[in-house]
Amino acid sequence: MLAQPSCTVAPDSVPSDAGIAGAGVLLASTITAGLALGISASLVLQDLWRSSRPTSGNPSVIRRKLLNGYSDQQIMVGIGLQSVGLVKSSSLVPYHFFLIWMLALLSTATHNAALLALVQDFKRDWVLRWMRQFLMFVNLVLSCVYGIYVLQSKIRGLPNTLPIGCVWELSSSESNVGGLDYVGTIVTIAGNCVVFGLATWYLQSRRQRWYKAVQVVGLILMLGIAIGATARAYLLSQAFGAPDVKLGDEGEKQWSFGQLLSLLMLVLPVISVIEIMRGEIAVALPVQDEDKQALFDGELSDQSAGGYRTK
User: Fold this and answer.
1) Crossing angle, helix 257-264 and helix 23-52, to 10 degrees?
2) Which ranges does the record mark as transmembrane (predicted)?
3) Lower Cβ count inside 10 Å, N or C end of the chain?
């Protein structure tokens, strides 16, 4: 995007990029998403159990703290991946560009699943809530731009060894891509917009109607999106599947320092668990059912002098 891509001659092959599609990168993304989705599901199921048996269960402080960290991480990972991908569109071929999109979709689905489980906690502070809303909007815009790039590359029949940025330089070309690819890309873009609208309503609504049903259905939907994005990325990658472009080497199958570092970073949440168990970090208790209606009360007036809050 910042540099003019070379679109004159399509090479026979392209170099691999282990930083995008390496085995360690894919595994680290999948494991992180799997952990976050598992914690989200456990909290939602526990919430359902506690609603039927109010005296049972525990606050789940450790899981909530971990999930809150994963939620922040995933939304920033999605924005970061897509931002870097767009900046490097003058050098990234459609193969790597599409893999970044799939990893970003996985991060978005993971964040939305965490939102379903922790929405009442996010509503404690209106500043943090609107900040999260802004980040979700930025992520949606980037995802839609990504989808437009991918759709245009299919419509114009961009050779898979040319940079994705060349899609705007092609005057005309015969596309050899089937209709299913068009439909899948369009559905993905439209689905992102619909999910963003529902997530915004869920995050900002004062009255949580069908709260439990939305949690369960939304969690199943996010799990389906995460599984679909992961399967597509794995089947297309050189490390675990068959790329749709000829790569000049097998660097994405090799375990380099960066690949191992991605997996080692998964150990960091364990430190937070130990600190919470040792009492080093104080974590607010989850919002109870009787407190949910009061979360928005005094949203702006709670900053007034003396702590006075209007009803």
Assistant:
1) 10
2) 20-45, 98-118, 130-151, 182-204, 216-235, 255-274
3) C
